[in-house]
## 1
Amino acid sequence: MPRTKSKSENEIDRTEMLRYLKECGLQPVTPRSIQIYLDDSLRPVSEDAIEFHLLYMRDRGWVELGQQKRVGAQEFITWARITADGVDEFDRRASVLGEAR
């Protein structure tokens, strides 16, 4: 059974997702490309967790999501991109961490 991540680990995952989305600019990216980026950053995250984080960030207004629904299936995320509020949130997190922007 996989280990449950702590709240601070989830926040680090979200920060890394915001970093990637900011690097991509207004270009929409797929959840799979986010997962690959996080794997390359040594922060492996499951597909379900990525979807959870994206929905969380959408509810906060940090990302915009493209969703698609198929007949008889649940709605799923096809793309994500950062919003202006998401850029501000990433910049706030980066300054707290002492990173150069």
Note: The CA atoms of residues 5 and 11 lie 10 Å apart.
## 2
Amino acid sequence: MKRVACFKNKKLLGKSALSDNKYNTLKNYLKPLNNLMHELNFIYDLKSCFKDLNSFLIKYISGEISSQILQNDLNKQVLNYLSLIRTFLDKWEKHIKENFGKKSKELEIFKNLTNNEYDKNFYYRFLYNLSNYARHTGYAFHQISESLNKDDKKNLETFINKKIFLEGFNWKKSFSDEINSLPEDKINIYPFLNDMFKSMEKIHFKLVEYNIIKDINNLLINSLFLVNFLNKYKDCDCEILITEFVGDMEEIKKGKDFGMNIERLPLKIATLVIKTYLNAHKKYIKTFNFKGQYLGKIINSFPIKKNNDFFKGSEMVTYGNIKWIILFSELKTTPNDIELFVTYVIAGFSSAYYELNLKVIKTLKESRFNNLLDLFKDN
């Protein structure tokens, strides 16, 4: 049988049993989120490589590693980075073709994003082509230049010799003409590395965002189901996991060795789905959350706070020629004061829209993610 567990301080703490029926229901709700989580992780290897490359360069600049180590290892680090850029793009393209088709809207968006970054940015064109050159020659650059700035801090530049670069590969004429037109004999690729990663992130998150938005309502229901599931364990300030012993239970009870399957929940993508939804609908919804002394209801106005006192507001408000109605309201007494939480929504939507947003408000308000409702706060 599967169990819900909490991972804290390097210890796995069991919380409760999870029946097969409840697990299968959870699994069905989580399947679309896990698919999105798979996409979200496409950038993991590239991000890790870029982080390692930056860490390596920072260590050199701070004096933790010598110029000799820099000379020996930097080319290998940049080669790996360039290789993973191509791997990242190839992985997205293959995934889209296999899951959505070669004539899909998703593939069209991928090609538009990559073509736009290529056409718009010289650093993108250069590093994309440099990766081809590096694969054939083994060199990501030809020269390292080290110097000190006015604060005696190290400056680093990594150069490609234009003549050697152009003669070392059979380039497209448009690209070779562009390189030939540059006035310098050397091209410093150092600043390009960071710019290129920003382009990869932009492409990546635009694709993930599109796959969220095109099915946002269904994914929102999946995400709220997960949040509701986790609400039962909101007293745990740690990651919630699904675990299952592997082996004969009778033997395990006797102290025999056993294995364990551990399943992580796609909370990161669920949170991203909810944020995407809230951001898309915040112009239709306003929330007010006040604490203090309750002064009563006022006519035709949203709630108003004055110092430590507040007025509740009316059931319907006309603001900027738009009618707003209360979707959810809660007034409760706490040990020190009175707390008001109220949500208004523009009048005129369908009942299904109100029901969905009421579910969003109630689910998030009672969860550890209630801070997400700040996106609806009236500014």
Note: The longest strand covers residues 322-333.
## 3
Amino acid sequence: MSTAAADDRALNAVRRVRDSREQDSRFGLQHALNAVRRRQTELREARDRRAAAPSFAFGSTAEFVQHLGQLAALAEQEARAAERVEGSRLVADEATRRWQQDRQQVRVVDLLLERRAEVRAEERRRHEAHELDDLATQSWLRNRQAAS
């Protein structure tokens, strides 16, 4: 195993765990957003049912009271559907927040890995430059001794 891989083994393990968490939270977010869409559809249907309810034109008092009861039931269904939409939105907002946090944690580990790789590359460049300086110095010394 190379030294870079050995140096980053623990950080790569952390990245895998955080990546798994991010994927799980993304799946949860997708599920929550689908639930919001379903709840919004239910609310739209409840509103449509209430809007499509026939108006009371004529009839007995008992029929009028029955009609009011039906309208009240439709309004109650719409109110419950609106509450479910709001509840679903709250869950989706929390799922979004969690996913963003998990995604940020993965990015942090990625940045650390990139910085470590950059530091190692810079160290390699410095080491190579030092070796080239040594070779140039040795060559100069040999040429100087040969000239003397």
Note: The longest helix spans residues 61-147.
